[in-house]
Write a structure and sequence with these properties.
mainly beta; 2 domains; three-stranded antiparallel beta sheet; 128 residues
Length: 128
């Protein structure tokens, strides 16, 4: 665990990114099928295991792949992978840290507490 202590007066900006869907889609297993040439069976096609498929990838990932990342939340019941809500606090040009949350409400309350405890007047820009 890493703890960050910072001066709220040095915060240059705060970015709040709410929960959104990732590009991963669930695909069921594809069993190998027989291949034929001129009516003769010449082998089997390659099967594919069940897993998460991304639009640009040619392979599938196991569910355990996402457990190594804080930014993904896997819902096995609804078969969805979403990006967790996150707050990035920028302390100048290069210095920043990102904190991940389980719900949008937790992220919103964290940003609200940062703004309330700061002496700065933050302006909000909403990007859709």
């Amino acid at each position: 665990m890493t703890k960050y202590y910072f001066d709220l007066d040095k915060v240059s900006s705060i970015a709040l990114k709410l929960e959104e869907e990732s590009g991963y889609k669930w695909c069921d297993e594809v069993k190998p099928q027989p291949r034929y040439f001129l009516g003769f069976k010449i082998g089997l096609t390659k099967g594919k295991p069940a897993g998460w498929w991304y639009e640009d990838e040619n392979y599938r990932r196991a569910t355990s792949y996402f457990y190594d990342y804080k930014s993904y939340k896997v819902d096995l019941v609804n078969k969805k992978v979403t990006l967790r809500p996150r707050v990035t606090v920028y302390l100048g040009y290069k210095d920043c840290y990102t904190n991940y949350f389980d719900t949008d409400q937790q992220a919103n309350s964290y940003v609200k507490s940062l703004i309330d405890n700061s002496k700065k007047n933050f302006q909000v820009i909403i990007e859709k």
